Amino acid sequence: MNLSIRSFVFALAFLLVLPTSVMARNSEHDAVDQAMKKMMRAFETGDANLAFEVLRKDGAVLGYSTSRGQVVTQTTEEWAKGFQGKPADDEAQRKRSYEIVDVTEHAAVVKLTLDYPAWKGLDYLALSKIDGKWMIVSKSWSGQRKP
């Protein structure tokens, strides 16, 4: 009888904790999604200030430049200088999509695909939850110019 009561209490506790855990995970996933939507709007508008709402200025950007034949590293602040404060001239032809690969309580990874008229690239963005806010802390990129 004791075993039955323990099993029942354990099962009940599991059922009560599981939905809470799933809800917390979904909540973090949604928060990462909101950060990425903001970053996508920053790309579309060329607005660095909007980007910095979800991008740490001391973050790292690292990738291999085939045109230079070397690894290129810079801070996210240096990288964001490419945002010109207005949409790119070919913005209507640019395609971007992202996939949230993994989210834990304080870290997330997002795969970002860029298909531009003159560039095709793939970025992996690492996000950290800092002071309750999801921020992009690093970007690993690869890509190449289109002919």
List the helices and strands and how they pair.
Elements (H helix, E strand, L loop, with lengths): L1 H44 L2 H4 L3 E11 L4 E6 H4 L15 E9 L3 E10 L2 E12 L2 E13 L2
Parallel strand pairs: 1-6
Antiparallel strand pairs: 1-2, 3-4, 4-5, 5-6
Features:
single chain, 147 residues, alpha+beta, 35% helix
Structural description of this entry:
With 147 residues, the chain is α+β, with helices and mostly antiparallel strands. The chain is 35% helix and 41% strand. The protein has a 6-stranded mixed sheet with strand order 2-1-6-5-4-3. The termini are far apart.
In which order are the strands of the major sheet placed?
Answer: 2-1-6-5-4-3
Q: Using only CA atoms, what is the Rg?
A: 20 Å
Poorly predicted sequence stretches spanning 5 or more consecutive residues: none
How far is it from the N-terminal to the C-terminal residue, by CA? 75 Å
Strand content: 35-45%
Mean pLDDT: 90
Percent range of helical residues: 25-40%
Question: What's the main sheet like?
Answer: 6 strands, mixed
| Total number of beta strands | 6
Q: What is the number of helices? A: 3
Spatial shape? elongated
Order of helices and strands: HHEEHEEEE
Helices and strands: which structural class?
Answer: alpha+beta
